[in-house]
Amino acid sequence: MRTPLRPVVLTGASGALGRELARRLGEASWPLVLTDIVPFPDPLPPAARFIVADLEDGAAILRLCEGAGTILHFGGVSVERPFEEVVGPNIRGLYHVYEAARREGARVVFASSNHVIGFYERTTPLDADCAFRPDGYYGLSKAFGELMARLYFDKHGVESVILRIGSCFPEPRDARMLSTWLSYADLARLVICAALASQVGVATIWGASANARSFWRRDDRAVIGWQPQDSADPFAPTLESRVGDDPVAERFQGGTFCAIDYTRDRG
Ligand code: 15L
Hints:
Layout: E1 8-11, H1 16-27, E2 32-36, E3 49-52, H2 58-64, E4 70-73, H3 83-104, E5 107-113, H4 137-156, E6 160-165, E7 167-168, H5 177-180, E8 181-182, H6 184-196, E9 202-207, H7 221-224, H8 236-239, H9 247-251, H10 256-259
Parallel strand pairs: 1-2, 1-4, 2-3, 4-5, 5-6, 6-9, 7-8
The protein binds D-galactaro-1,5-lactone (15L).
D-galactaro-1,5-lactone binds at residues 78-79, 113-115, 167, 180, 255.
C-alpha cells in the first residue's frame, strides 16, 4: 500500500473507530498525528504521535494540523445527545477542522452518519444525493458537516470524502444492522481509498459492507475505487428475528435514534 507523504491527522483517535484506524494505518506505517480530548489508550504505532486537544480549541486544532495533507475527522459527539452537547464539538469543532484543511490545503475524510437520512422509511431505497432527513441533533450536525464540505470545496477548493457510515461494529447486532453494517476491515479500506485517491472533489459514499438487505444504492465510490468485501448476510439466520418493540425505531432507517424524544403520532 502507498503511504501518504504528508502527515495524516486523525481526530477522535481514542474512540472505537479511531483506535481501529490508528492500529491498521499505523501497521502500514502511515505518518499519523492522532488527537482526541481523552488520552490514547493503546500503544502508539511507530510512525504516530498523539496530541491531546479539544475540537473546540481552534488554535490547538490549527497547530496540530500544520503540514497535514489529510484530516480523517472522526472526532466529536457520535450518538444522539441534547443540542447543547452536540453544538460545540460537532459544529464549532468541525469549523476548526475545515479551517485547518483550508490553511494546509488538506483533504478531509469526514465521518458522517446514516443519521443524516434516518427519517426515511426502511422500505425506501436511497441514493447518496437524496435530501437530508436527520433523525436528531446528532444527525443534523452531520448534515451540517456534509454541507460544510460542499461550502469549503466550492469556495476554497478543499476536497472531502464524506463517509455516510451505517453501523460500524465488530459484528452486526440486530436485524437493522443486516442492512447497515460496515465491517472494520471495510472501513479501513474505505478510509485508505478516500485518502489516496487522486482527485475527489466532494464525494459521498455509503459506509456499509456488501449487505443484500441494504437500504442504500448509488453513491460516489467509483471516484475513490472502493468496493466493500465483507457482508452482514451470513448473520441473517441469527439476527433476522432480533427486532425491538418500538414501532418508530423499527419503521425508520435511523432505528432507535428516531425514537429518542419522538412526540409525533404517539397518541
Ligand atoms: C452512528 O452514527 C453511531 O455513531 C453509532 O453508534 C451507531 O449507532 C450507528 O450510527 C447506527 O446507526 O447503527
